[in-house]
Specification:
Layout lengths: L4 H6 L8 E5 L7 H10 L3 E5 L4 H6 L3 H10 L3 E6 L5 H10 L5 H15 L5 E5 L5 H5 L1 E6 L2 E6 L11 E5 L6 H15 L1 E2 L9
Parallel strand pairs: 2-3, 3-4
Antiparallel strand pairs: 1-7, 2-5, 4-8, 5-6, 6-7
Helix pairs in contact: 4-6
Length: 199
């Protein structure tokens, strides 16, 4: 009642406050935003894109950065699609691009191998029954910030929209997307490092 309607309409209230910024394309979000969120994370980095491939291209020395974060006590998790899974094959047919989904996943696995077996680094493949839900929604969490990409139809990740969220309460969008990603993680299967013996 105290504020003019024009002012009220320009101020975010309730759960809208969690939306820091929206981008019509993931590629429109500056790489500096990703870099700052990674650098500032003090306890949790959870990267649950289906391939996470673009991170290694856009973030200089990401392997070394992640190693420093892990050494500082940050929990680092990667949730990936199964490169040999049926949903991966279906997605490759839909995208029909030279750099296939399975190749992009394997590039991430190669970079994770460079990190080696470190306490604080975990990687899983999403379960087959969750793969369709995983490929259609990427959630990247940095403590109380998240970058979320819902994938549209036949578009590759960088052509899909992105939301930058910051947690401001227990029931907001940040929590809903984070809980979705955690559910996929719980049902996922551990990625075995290429250097590990097969039992």
């Amino acid at each position: 009642m105290l504020w003019p309607k024009a002012v009220r309409n320009s101020i975010k209230t309730g759960n809208d406050r969690e939306i820091i910024r929206s981008y019509p394309y993931r590629s429109a979000c500056p790489s500096s935003v990703w870099g700052e969120l990674i650098r500032n994370a003090g306890s949790e980095l959870y990267l649950s894109g289906y391939t996470n491939y673009f991170l290694w291209l856009e973030q200089p020395s990401l392997v070394e950065t992640l190693r420093r974060k892990i050494d500082a006590g940050v929990r680092v998790r990667f949730l990936l699609g199964d490169p040999d899974g049926e949903v991966t094959r279906q997605r490759e047919a839909v995208e029909n691009v030279a750099l296939t989904v399975s190749t992009r996943i394997r590039i991430t696995l190669e970079h994770l191998d460079r990190l080696g077996a470190l306490d604080g680094l975990e990687a899983r493949f999403s379960a087959p029954e969750d793969a369709m839900n995983h490929v259609s929604l990427s959630v990247f969490r940095f403590d109380d910030h998240a970058l979320v990409t819902p994938h549209l139809a036949r578009l590759v990740g960088h052509d899909s929209p992105l939301l930058h969220l910051h947690r401001s309460g227990a029931e907001g969008m940040f929590t809903r997307f984070s809980e979705h990603a955690e559910e996929l993680w719980e049902r996922g299967t551990r990625v075995q490092a290429s250097s590990e013996p097969v039992s």
